[in-house]
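Shipment paperwork, digital attachment
Item: protein structure file
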Amino acid sequence: MSVRTLLRMGDPRLQLSAAEVKDFGPAALEPLLRDMFDTMQAAGGVGLAAPQIGESLRVVVFGFERSDRYPEAPAVPRTILINPVLTPLGSEEEEGWEGCLSVPGLRGWVPRFRHLRYQGVDAAGAPIDRTVEGFHARVVQHEVDHLDGILYPQRIRDMTRFGFQDVLFPGHIAGDD
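Attachment content:
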């Protein structure tokens, strides 16, 4: 198991646009993907972007059967998504609480597109093309934002709905996402 150090908000590497992946050989991606899943699992996250562990590549991983952090959320399939392209399907937005492993201890009320198509490739370069909604769409948008140097606090419209998790939700036990 290779758990990597998570970069935290303020680190300039989280503000960069990540480079497109061009080398799909196993030697290039397998160690990174293993580290990403190990790090995500160890931190209890539901998704992770390569820039969060200091790798400026357009790679995200996400997925879970059940999440302690989001107990009401439906399962999201374990996914490796490389060079993603997101296409909102309509203008309907849904707001919800988000956290981030790179912004520990804080939560914010974030608008996201409710319906979304995402495309990209998996680790072998095979195409992925999915249409999703709700929490699955939220997770993908959150992770892909990292590839463009955007952290969720930049998406918050009402800063009165942003704060420390233990203050916003006293008595609630959950981690950061």
